Automatic annotation (TrEMBL):
Region (Disordered): 160-187
Keyword annotations from UniProtKB, A to Z: Membrane, Transmembrane, Transmembrane helix
Coiled coil: none
Residue stretches spanning the membrane: 196-218, 224-246, 253-275, 281-304, 311-332, 338-361
Phylogenetic placement of the source organism: Eukaryota, Metazoa, Chordata, Craniata, Vertebrata
Name used for this protein in its record: Uncharacterized protein
């Protein structure tokens, strides 16, 4: 991520002849925290999952971050003409860039501490450093692997050509006596030393890490809340389905009970009809028997005047008629008893069916 406009003042370090032999570059804590914060990507995640609550949480964390950083700020001692730009913080690498000290020169060698970069337009890794000589933008990009960047100072030197052995020796003796002034003057237009002070970066990174963790916690909380909402909706749907199933089951039970009652009523009606037919048949038989008996009595009475024997026969016939009437009456009584018993049994079955259905509904 390129954070344009994050420039840092360079404090001049006077040389032995009063010229600017080097520059001190200060990267202050608020600016480091700024690109750490914007590199975390937590703002997008919070907007996706958290809504208004996430915005409030992010605002609170940002206020806390700014409050803490106000105590960690290390302002530059003075301002200068050059600048450096923080490029980003990815995978534990702090990246910044430093432009050529003189844009009219094309530098073939750039040293950062003990690392010597001779290649162009490609990254090279040196232990805890990685360097990129950008000839198009006329700058060097420096990547510092954490946590080593929290406690060291880094010197950047630019050479227009590969220095001789004497030049290398001279680089290690920048602060010697004035006897080396001629050599210093020889190279002062071609190289520059920049001290990159990153003492406040560790604290700023720690604060930014806390903020990122808090943002992640907020995102996780929002995700948990969303999952809980989904679970509640699923539970409500399941409850509605159970209630609907219970309603359907109750309706089916009522229908079954109604069908059973109707069947019992039909059976009772059939039984009553059968009993009625039986009673009618018995009555018809009794009527036939009574007619036969009456005819016999009439015959006996007619013959009674003739002989005594005929009288005896009439008496026997009368007895037969009485017996037939008794049998007919008994048959009618038996048929009525059977019909009543059948109707009572049908009613009992219907009542038992209704009671069982009521128990099922409860």
């Amino acid at each position: 991520m390129l954070l344009g406009g994050n420039h840092f003042g360079l404090s001049p370090k006077k040389g032995r002849r009063g010229s600017s032999a080097g520059q001190n570059l200060h990267l202050s804590a608020p600016t480091i925290a700024h690109f750490l914060w914007n590199s975390s990507g937590s703002d997008t995640q919070m907007r996706r999952l958290g809504g208004n609550a996430a915005t409030v949480q992010r605002s609170t964390m940002k206020s806390l971050l700014l409050l803490l950083l106000s105590l960690l700020t290390v302002p530059p001692r003075s301002s200068g003409s050059d600048s450096a730009v923080v490029r980003g913080f990815k995978g534990g690498w702090l990246e910044f860039s430093s432009r050529y000290p003189d844009l009219s020169y094309n530098y073939t060698l750039i040293k950062v501490n003990e690392a010597a970069l001779k290649s162009f337009n490609q990254w090279e890794t040196f232990s805890n450093l990685r360097l990129y000589h950008d000839t198009e933008r006329k700058e060097v990009k420096v990547g510092i692997k954490g946590p080593s960047w929290s406690s060291r100072r880094y010197k950047i030197k630019f050479y227009p050509e590969k220095p001789s052995k004497r030049d290398d020796d001279h680089d290690d003796d920048d602060d010697d006596d004035d006897d080396d002034d001629d050599d210093d003057n020889k190279y002062k237009s071609y190289k520059r030393t920049v001290d990159v002070e990153l003492a406040a970066v560790a604290a700023a990174a720690a604060v930014a890490t806390v903020a990122a963790v808090a943002a992640a916690v907020a995102v996780a909380a929002a995700a948990v809340a969303a999952a809980a909402t989904v679970a509640a909706v699923a539970a409500a749907v399941a409850a509605a389905a159970v209630a609907a199933a219970a309603t359907v089951a109750a309706a089916a039970t009522v229908a079954a009970v109604a069908a059973a009652v109707a069947a019992a009523a039909v059976a009772a009606a059939a039984t009553v009809a059968a009993a009625t037919v039986a009673v009618a048949a018995v009555a018809a038989v009794a009527a036939v028997a009574a007619a036969v008996a009456a005819a016999a009595v009439a015959a006996a009475v007619a013959a009674a005047a003739t002989t005594a024997a005929t009288v005896a026969v009439a008496a026997v016939a009368a007895a037969a008629v009485a017996a037939a009437a008794t049998v007919a009456a008994a048959a009618v009584a038996a048929a009525a008893t059977v019909a009543v018993a059948t109707v009572a049994a049908a009613a009992t079955v219907a009542v038992a069916t209704v009671a069982a259905a009521a128990l099922l509904l409860l």
